[in-house]
Amino acid sequence: EEPHGAAPVDFLQELPSCQSARRRRGGTQERRPALLGTAGSRGDAARALPQETDKLADRPAREQPICMAEKRRTRDSQQAETEHLSRWKKWRRTSSKSLKKTLSEVKGLSSYLVLWRHDIHSIEGKFGTGIQSYFSFLRFLVLLNFIIFILMFSFVTLPTIISKYGLFNSTIAYISPKNIDDICTIYEPSGNRGLVYFYTYLKDLLSGTGFLEVTSLFYGYYSIDAVWISIMRYNLPLAYLLATFAYLALSFLWIIKRSVEGFKQNLVHDADPFQSYCNKVFAGWDFCITDPNAAQLKYRSLQYELQTDLQEEKLKQKIAERRMGEKLRIYSLRIFINIIVIAILSGCFYSIYRVTVFSQENSNGIDSANSQVNLLVQYLPSMVITLANFIGPLIFAFLIRFEDYTPAFEIKLTLLRCVFVRLANIGVLLFSLWSQISSCGSDKCKPCGYNYKLYPCWESDVGQEMYKLMIFDFIVILAVALFVDFPRKLLVTHCSCKLVQWFGHKEFEISDNVLEIIYGQTICWIGTFFSPLLPAIATIKYFIIFYVKKIVLIHTCKPAARPIRASSSNFFFLVVLLIGLLLAFIPLGFSIARIPSSKACGPFRNFNTSWEVIPDTVLQSSTGLQQFLFGIASEAFAVPFFVILCIIMFYVIALAQAHKRVVEQLREQLVLESRDKMFLIRKIAEAQR
Fold this sequence. Notes:
Elements: H1 2-13, H2 16-25, H3 31-58, H4 68-82, H5 87-111, H6 117-127, H7 129-164, E1 170-173, H8 198-207, E2 226-229, E3 232-234, H9 236-271, H10 273-283, H11 292-320, H12 324-362, H13 371-378, H14 380-399, H15 407-438, H16 458-494, H17 498-503, E4 506-507, H18 510-527, H19 534-556, E5 557-558, H20 566-593, H21 613-620, H22 623-633, H23 635-688
Helix pairs in contact: 6-7, 6-11, 7-9, 7-18, 7-19, 7-20, 9-20, 10-11, 12-14, 12-15, 14-15, 14-16, 15-18, 15-20, 16-18, 16-19, 18-19, 18-20
């Protein structure tokens, strides 16, 4: 029997996989142990095969990796086996199948309830997945702001409204201020009294003053200490602060979750571009599509994805073929352009700082008779910020065309440059306001700890500034669509002037549009503490912007000359949004922990800072709860907890490295299997000849 068994062994030794394994082991002297090890591993595999077969047999026929004829035979055998089962097992199997079918149908129906599902699919088919990612990102912000609004309204606004109108046998509990001068408690909102002109209402609507200042939109409305509903006491200051922490934590976790999903897709694509290309060509089509329109949209989506891949490969090849002189020219040009960008950023920051200081110093010195001039001076920082946000991205989008980057990196770099303009503008404005609120000279701040004469309720004033920034940003977006995009489309279509034709149809700039909504979302995160209903305004704003941008895209824009991939764009959009959220933590944390709270309005009137409500609530709780919380905050708990976290982190890192090695080995195995198949095909062809 040895001659019959030796031939297959010698034949298997000629396989590329076996030769590669021998080379890795260091030579042919270990051939026999290797073969024995291979036989042992085959024996283990043979013993494990029945277990895997039993697991596959328990699965439904349509989920097994076999051909259709085998699936039919498997289904018939499974149906025949059910006849010999007991009634209990038959009922369990039938119930399990019915439950799975019901869940599948519910999941299919729920997909039709997704907001703007058809619109986004249509945009994806006509303009590619890069632009589609922008509208999906906009939908995410609509849902996020709506949930933040529900959170703030349920725990802050609704209990206040219920108590003020006496619903459900509710009453309001006021606590008289202690050790506070009476002069600090004077706050007279500028609400409209009597008959006023329509212009006054319009001014109040744009600035958040007048009749809006005394509504539940701003912080000053919530000047109660507790709400009694029947026999239950509702601590409004604690609920206000915890709701703020909750919406920030919710935003952070939701963005992280979506970022991880995008990071996985981006990692898979970057790991092996050829594999991604093969997946699109051989496995990208959805054979469940029956509608011709849906099929056309899917075809266009795949076409744009392949076009993006080929465009990026072409640019990479072009970069690899550059000579030294061309590289020096491009790098010198990039350095020069970056110097221009830094100069533009510095000019924007300085201009906003000077304008804000001028507005703060002169807005109250103008005679009230010149109401229009006073209004202009008050809104001057918002106007300059909006102008910088509008002009800056246009200059950056023009300059980056000369730097010769890939489309994906071009979007990332433009976004980073614009982030410094938009988010730093908010920081300069807040810094100027806080310098006027807390850094006052002589004895202005001595009785109350802040400039009570100029800002008796400074939280509402900050909320009004955030409200004005959001309203002006929305007005600018609508104005650009109505007075820039559509007239440009009409001129290019009906005017044959060379200058007009040189401008051409507008391309949908993803970076600029993404920065618009990230800027507005950062304003919303900062302003929600000072204006609890600001997320509702943001939800309505983004809802309208979706349709405005859709109309502008379809009727005035042309497809991008260089398509953008959605996987990298989605991930980077969320990273920039996360940067905006982290930057929003800084002014909010400073306002809550450092700046003295207003003594004339708001739920924190009886506390030096907003944060003091936390230790005050803990001290009023039971002794057991106090000991538990103090124990968690002590070093005896923190040090072991930190050590355990480090151990878990090291374990996860080691596990990730092990998985990475397994993935690399599986990829090598796939390559070797393909070589073995080619070798066997050649041997079969030689044997047939």
